[in-house]
Amino acid sequence: MTRSVLVDKVAEKVEGLTRKQTEIVIETVFDGIKDALRKGEKIEIRGFGNFRLKTRNPRRARNPKTGESVDVPAKKVLHFKVGKELKELLNS
Amino acid sequence: MTKADIADAIFEKVGLSKKEAQDIIEIIFETLKQTLKEGESVKISSFGTFHVRKKAARRGRNPKTGEDLEISPRKVITFRASNKLKSVIEQ
Questions:
Q1: Which of residues 20-79 of B touch A (CB under 8 A)?
Q2: Is B76 helix (H, G, I), strand (E, B) or coil?
Q3: By percentage, how much of chain A surpasses pLDDT 70?
Q4: CA B66, CA B75: separation in Å to the nearest integer?
Q5: pTM recorded for the entire structure
Q6: Which of A3, A48, A85, A89 to mutate to test the interface with B (most CBs of B within 10 A)?
Q7: ipTM
Q8: At what angle do helices A19-38 and B18-37 cross, to 10 degrees?
Q9: How many CB atoms lie within 10 A of CB B13?
Q10: Residues 6+ apart with CB under 8 A from A12
Q11: CA distances from A65 to A61, A62, A70, A73, B68 (A)
């Protein structure tokens, strides 16, 4: 499923909302999550899952081609944890 | 950030009532959940992709009791952030 299919499905289910409005609503949802992550906030969607940032420590790695040591700086990666309800739904 | 904060954003941006905004958020995530339940991946452009992966049964152990047990086959969801989202996070 893609974003546009999601828009179609939601627009179908919601009375009195045009496709265009639905598109804006869905954009607002994902932009909102993105903005919160930009600020380093945790996002909790009850029943679906949580998004949060995890910090990776700086480390020394090797370029496998040349054998050279390289320093990899600390960085943040996104972690999605599936909500309990969705986890149970998947395996029911 | 929770669903309530997202509802506020929709209320401000789209002009739906708070109740309508809450309802549509439920519908959006319910639609996502049902699609994933069917085993179908969801790709949200410039955000990321939710993949459904099937895991085979395997032998495991209860770490508390040391007991051997069978871990049943199951579906799990993985999320991969799009490059756009990754670059937002990196900054």
A1: 21, 23-25, 27-29, 31-33, 35-37, 40-48, 50, 52, 72, 74-79
A2: strand
A3: 100
A4: 25
A5: 0.89
A6: A48
A7: 0.88
A8: 80
A9: 15
A10: none
A11: 12, 9, 12, 20, 42
